[in-house]
Amino acid sequence: MAGKGKLFIVSAPSGAGKTTLVRAVLKEFTSLSYSVSHTTRPPRGNEKEGLDYFFISPAEFEEKIARGLWLEWARVHDNYYGTSRPFVEDCLQKGKSFLLDIDVQGAVQIMASGLNPISVFILPPSFEALSQRLLNRGTDSKEVIEKRLINARAEMEQKHRYQYVVVNDDLNAAIEELCAIFKKEMSHER
What we know:
By secondary structure, the protein is α/β, with parallel strands linked by helices. 42% of the residues lie in helices and 20% in strands. A hairpin with a 2-residue loop joins strand 5 and strand 6. Helix 1 crosses helix 7 (171-186) and helix 5 (127-137) packs antiparallel against helix 6 (142-156).
């Protein structure tokens, strides 16, 4: 039987560049499995069902809460987000290393789950840079951006809970630093 896989968590405030960094890691480490989260928010832009998220109704999400089928779940920006417990546990038992791209609330739940995750927090170079990135993205209303910035401050205060912190100031340097963390952690037994 294969050895147990490793579970990686990557978190960041909205607009810190987490998605771009995670995609670079997944391209570099093709043996990593990736969790596609479930959400009750509507798709943005080019997001695809089953690739970016599984888009489900609030009623369906709440039914899965009641059945204990989420490894982690949270209500963020007035929408539910969650990770399927059966999917993650199955991957780990098969010896697959697994990457979760999740918010701080979900990360804290998984850190307390007994699965011994390796955790990385992505920081923007500054709060001002984060604000500008969210504005430049052009996908959210002013009210949504303000809510994301309030949440970002609270999330950034939680960075001490993570084993690693990567500042995404220079994208190539941040990718290199994040890949070095994955290489180190995947090369030895925990």
